[in-house]
Design brief:
single chain; 268 residues
Length: 268
C-alpha cells in the first residue's frame, strides 16, 4: 500500500489476488450547492473529479475503486444536485473500472437509492481488504478490522498548518501515519480482544474545496471520531508527509513549532 505522488489517493495491491485498488476519501460531491446558498458561484466539479479518479485508476492499473466515506456533501438527505450527479459520477467510474466500493461516512445518509448496479455499499464500520482495514472514521471500526495490521481512515481531512514569521497561516494536505497505543486500545475499544492494529493512516480530502485540518494546530481531542477522542493514537509520534513525499517529522514537534510561531504575536 502506498500513497500516490502529489495526489490525495492510495494505491493498494491486494497480495492474495493481485488486484490493484485505488482508494480516495472525502469527495463531498454537491458542496457547490452549499457554496451557492452562501452567495458563491462555483460550477459543479463532479465530472471533473470523476475524470481525475479515472485518470489515477488508469495510472496504477486499478480494477477497483474504494471511496472511503463522505462521497456526498449533504449530511441529511440528498440535494437535487446530488440526486442528478451521483449516478452519472458512478457510471463514469464503472465504464473504466470493474468494481466500485463505498464505505459510508457521516455525510452519506440516504445514499443507497442513487447507487447504480455495480457499486457495493459497505457497513459504516468499514471493510477489510487483505491485512488493511478501511473505515471513514466517524464510528468505531468493526470487529473484523481488529486484527488488521493497518487501518486507513478519512473524515478529518488530514493536513498540516504552516505559519510564517509574520503569523500568516495556511494548511497543506498531508498524510498522517500514527502508531496505535496498544494498552489504551485494549482499555477503551468496545469488543476489543487480544489483537489490535499497529498504525493508522489518516488521508487528506480528495476534494480541494473542503480544505484540510492542520493536525498540528488542534488538540488531539478536537479531531473527529472515537479513535481520536479516546486517545487510541499516539499522535505526538505520528509521522507527517506532504503529498510530494516530503517527510516533515513527528507531529509533536510540528505542533510545538506552530505554537512558537503564534507566540511571537504575528497577525495570523
Amino acid at each position: 500500500m502506498s500513497p500516490l505522488l502529489d495526489r490525495p489517493a492510495i494505491h493498494l495491491e491486494e497480495p492474495s489476488s493481485g488486484e490493484h485498488i485505488l482508494v480516495v476519501s472525502d469527495l463531498h460531491l454537491g458542496i457547490e450547492y452549499e457554496i451557492f446558498r452562501a452567495g458563491g458561484n462555483i460550477p459543479s466539479q463532479t465530472s471533473k473529479m470523476a475524470g481525475h479518479i479515472v485518470e489515477l485508476a488508469k495510472l496504477v492499473g486499478a480494477e477497483r475503486v474504494v471511496i472511503l466515506g463522505d462521497l456526498k456533501h449533504g449530511v441529511t438527505g440528498l440535494s437535487r444536485q446530488e440526486m442528478r450527479e451521483i449516478p452519472v459520477f458512478f457510471e463514469t467510474l464503472l465504464r473504466n473500472v470493474e468494481r466500485v466500493d463505498v464505505v459510508p461516512g457521516n455525510h452519506d445518509s440516504g445514499l443507497g437509492p442513487v447507487l447504480p448496479r455495480g457499486v457495493s455499499l459497505h457497513p459504516a464500520r468499514g471493510v477489510r481488504i487483505g491485512e488493511t482495514g478501511f473505515f471513514h472514521g466517524h464510528t468505531w471500526p468493526g470487529e473484523e478490522l481488529l486484527s488488521c495490521k493497518v487501518w486507513v481512515t478519512g473524515h478529518n481531512h488530514a493536513g498540516i498548518e504552516f505559519v510564517d514569521g509574520l503569523g500568516y497561516r495556511h494548511v497543506e494536505p498531508a498524510w498522517i501515519r500514527a502508531p496505535v497505543r496498544r494498552e489504551r486500545f485494549m482499555e477503551v475499544y468496545p469488543g476489543g480482544g487480544e489483537t489490535c492494529c499497529e498504525w493508522v493512516c489518516c488521508m487528506p480530502s480528495f476534494n480541494p474545496l473542503v480544505g484540510n485540518i492542520g493536525f498540528n494546530s488542534v488538540q488531539p481531542g478536537e479531531l473527529l471520531g472515537p479513535i481520536f477522542r479516546r486517545g487510541i493514537l499516539d499522535l505526538e509520534n505520528a509521522e507527517v508527509y506532504l503529498l510530494d513525499g516530503l517527510f516533515l517529522g513527528k507531529l509533536g514537534d510540528l505542533r510545538m513549532l506552530v505554537g512558537q510561531r503564534r507566540g511571537r504575536g504575528g497577525r495570523g
